[in-house]
Write a structure and sequence with these properties.
alpha/beta, six-stranded mixed sheet, Rossmann fold, about 425 residues, about 15% strand
Length: about 425
């Protein structure tokens, strides 16, 4: 019944498809397809071709126009004749059951949309029982409205109501709808069980959070693949899995960090992405509780990405959906060592673009806008990490004193105490 990529087999070849609309220009579509290719690579597929079409909006029947579908079909047939078979076609939007069915009928290969691709990656990355349960629930939520497509071979063979208006419908009603309802009941029952499991896990995690004592909670949030796991490994001397692939981290990891004489909890959370499926956001709410219950959010940004400002907006919108937009946020621009820019020629009179802005100019702009609420670092090269620790110490200490006025958890700075005692003359 599941139709996600089998990532444990040989890599499949894929075609990517996107639309250019009034709301999404060609540059933006190219950027989205770059990200879709990265998603496909993470899932184990190799992209061999891209197709785009300019339209007012996606067709409700086939997403693309008939001419573009025919062009893709011709390419697939030509590759098959050359013994380079295409394994799948991946669309950069979520497709309806009707669109999936019609496109598969036209192209004759496996069809995936952005949502099913992300779900496959989540299923591959899930390690703990909590993450596996959340992914399975999201997959069933995605699959439920698309069940009919999986049983097209059992659809009714006749039309009409049987009262004389239809052509030969009596005795020709197949078992398709019956099987469909059976599958629907099975999936709904399974979803109810998974929701109960998640509720039990959520209660356990709530109890764990209550037992953490009087510690300020800091959560790392940000777009996927911006270096959050690398950062928590650096600050907490942890061994969180970090890799240059999307959604390397699914489970929330919480580590105790001590800076100077101040202990606090630091959480690494799942990364956000454009067009993140609603089913995933709903299913991963227990994981994202660490974000909701955090006292301070550290928003990590990949400053080397050409559209990092759009990524900042995506994360901000997701935080708003989670009800976390009122929390204090520290903006952390990571990967400054990978930032590149092109200096304009002296006689070039064209308007400066984003690619013509130096890192120093960018830093001055954001620092003047946010003052002490932002910092430029490189977690991999360990650039400005001491400054980051000082800033975290200052912000966490302020929150600690506000939340716990008696400040009874901050232990004494023993080095200073020892120095003071040794300098005091004996009586």
């Amino acid at each position: 019944m599941k139709e996600f990529i089998k990532t444990d087999t040989q890599a499949e070849t894929a075609i990517l498809v996107g639309l250019i609309t009034q709301q999404q220009n060609e540059r933006k579509t190219t950027e989205y397809l770059d990200e879709l290719e990265f998603l496909a690579e993470t899932a184990g597929a190799v992209t061999v071709k891209r197709f785009t079409q300019k339209m007012d909006g996606p067709s409700a029947v086939t997403y693309l126009g008939k001419g573009k579908l025919a062009e893709i079909r011709s390419y697939i047939d030509a590759e098959k004749e050359a013994e380079r078979e295409i394994g799948m076609v991946i669309f950069d939007d979520e497709l309806s059951a009707k669109q999936l069915r019609n496109i598969e009928r036209e192209l004759g290969v496996k069809i995936l949309d952005r949502t099913s691709l992300i779900l496959d990656i989540f299923a591959m990355r899930a390690q703990t029982a909590n993450a596996k349960t959340q992914v399975e629930l999201a997959q069933y939520r995605y699959m439920l409205p698309r069940l009919q497509r999986l049983w097209t071979h059992l659809e009714r063979q006749g039309g009409g109501s049987g009262g004389g208006g239809g052509k030969g419908s009596v005795g020709l009603r197949g078992p398709g709808e019956t099987q469909l309802e059976m599958d629907r009941r099975i999936i709904l029952g399974r979803m109810a069980l998974l929701k109960q499991r998640l509720a039990d896990i959520d209660r356990q995690k709530t109890t764990q959070r209550k037992n953490r004592g009087r510690l300020i909670r800091v959560a790392l949030v940000g777009y996927t693949n911006v270096g959050k796991s690398t950062l928590i490994n650096l600050l907490a001397k942890a061994d969180v899995f970090a890799e240059n692939k999307l959604f390397a981290t699914l489970d929330t990891t919480v580590r105790k960090v001590i800076i100077d004489n101040l202990p606090f909890l630091l959480a690494d959370t799942v990364g956000f992405i454009r067009k993140l499926p609603t089913d995933l956001v709903d299913s991963f709410k227990s994981t994202l509780d660490e974000v909701r219950e955090a006292d301070l959010l550290v928003h990590v940004v990949d400053v080397s990405h050409p559209d990092f400002e759009d990524q900042i907006q995506v994360v901000s919108n997701t935080l708003h959906e989670l009800g976390c937009s009122d929390k204090p946020v520290l903006l952390l621009f990571n990967k400054m060592d990978a930032y590149t820019w092109t200096e304009k020629e002296a006689d070039d009179l064209t308007p400066a673009t984003r690619q013509n802005v130096s890192l120093q100019e960018l830093e001055n702009t954001w620092m003047s806008r946010l003052d002490n609420d932002c910092l430029f670092i490189s977690a991999r090269k360990r650039i400005h990490i001491d400054e980051l620790k000082q800033l975290l110490y200052k912000r966490v200490r302020q929150l600690h004193v506000q939340k716990y006025p008696y400040n009874d958890f901050l232990f004494e700075h023993y080095e200073e105490a020892a120095t003071t005692d040794s300098a005091t003359p004996a009586e």
